[in-house]
Input
Amino acid sequence: MALGPCPFWHQFTVYGNNIDLTMVQRSCDVYLGVPFNDAQDALLLEMIAKESELNPRFFHHHFVNVHAYLGVSPRADFLADPKNLKEFQKRFKENNNPNDYLNLKEWYLTKSPQESLGNERKDHIPFILEQLSKEPSPLPNIEIANLPLLEAILAPTSEIIKVNNNNPLKWDSKAVMAA
Output
């Protein structure tokens, strides 16, 4: 492979009847990658704890290169301009309530160039600002089937994991990776 996986190092540590997982992620896309990796590794900790008859305790996530995708030129050039970046940062710091993020999103979309044909949705800034405007939903609870770890790994996910009381926010969050 050209690049190694983004979460590249996992260490389990046992303290008495407890087990912790420490993960280091070399490349951290805050909008698409990190939320998935957090859920994935928290589940991994639960499954390993269950298999080893230990109590899952802490999941430590260490970030190396944290970033948000700005898309490709000409859109990406907007925040590369120090004047535009400074204005964006100033407006961002002034936000006091969720609607302020929507106003900033509107300003950003008005001032920055359109995304070029074939590169739509590669700029994650509008999606991040939209997400910041939302009130979080209550957390769901997750049930993991009582199977040995190897059987759980080989079985279809829908037979292993059940998500209860999941009420995700409904909104257009279909950003794509900028390549």
In short: The CA atoms of residues 78 and 84 lie 6 Å apart. The chain has seven helices and five strands.
